[in-house]
Amino acid sequence: MKKIGILHGQERTFPEAFVARVNQKNVPGIVAEPVMIDKVMQGEATDYAVIIDRISQDVPFYRAFLKNAAICGTAVINNPFWWSADEKFFNNALAVKLGVPVPKTVLLPSNQLPTNTTGASMSNLKMPLDWNSIFNYTGFPVYMKPHDGGGWKSVYQLDNSENFFKAHNETEQLVMMLQEEIKFQEYFRVYCIGGRDVKIMQYEPRNPHHLRYVIDGPPVSQALLDKVHHYTLVLCQALGYDFNTVEFAVRDGIPYAIDFCNPAPDADVHSVGQENFEWVVEAAANMAIRRAMEHKPGQDNLTWGTYLKNSVKNGSLKDLAAAANKPVFA
Description:
Elements: E1 2-7, H1 13-24, E2 30-34, E3 48-53, H2 60-71, E4 75-77, H3 80-85, H4 88-98, E5 105-108, H5 131-138, E6 142-146, E7 156-158, H6 161-168, E8 176-180, E9 186-193, E10 197-202, H7 222-239, E11 243-251, E12 254-259, H8 269-272, H9 274-294, H10 306-312, H11 317-324
Parallel strand pairs: 1-2, 1-3, 3-4
Antiparallel strand pairs: 5-8, 6-7, 6-8, 9-10, 9-11, 11-12
Helix pairs in contact: 1-9
């Protein structure tokens, strides 16, 4: 018997529907359940062939448990080693190399010194920074956000340098990035499951949370949807995420990837709506079953993105970019 587990916190609608959907399919030798942990011994395998992770970003104990499970052969979704190393500024840099449009973005050192450091620890940092060049590059208005944060925590929309310096003084030890604002005509939030199944959802981030998926506007061209679909697969396959959302802001017909590091994306029926919820439950269940059937005990069953695979093979970023520009087939 191969067990599929889901690790979650307060979330209920998606985990419960996911477990029920897998079990309803009655695949011989496969069963799904919520993960239960009573002990974690180093180098000892869990009972799970596959674990869907929905909470370890907030619980360090769970992240350590998942790494131990992964090294013993569990297919953890998403890869806990890559997720631990990933951050938004790197993602933007990778997107540039892949040819996916992203807003102009600059990395900023923390406003306050990190704990257990002094001014001497920052001796390689030229102060003051070349603020004029930075502001000329991004322009105004801009968004300032944590370089590795999630959701809308500590996010600022700023119209001028005076407001920037005031806001930056509030960020304490957070490493921030300054990002060009994309004034968009259309906006999409896109599920990508298993690096192959894509669900493009029109989205309005300026609406109240429960109305963001309620869109009343003109139809979108198929050419634009095809481009969004392609960029989504390029990014998720390069990063190696099995369960992700990518957000695109469309300006003058060009979809800019705004946010594409969401390895535990919102899948609550009350926010995404019944149609989108049904799609993600079905796609996630099918992916987990595939991964359970492909599972090889005691071996590495994680997904490693094309960026890391290419690096291991001593390939160049040019090779990766060339591969990204080939047609992607689901």
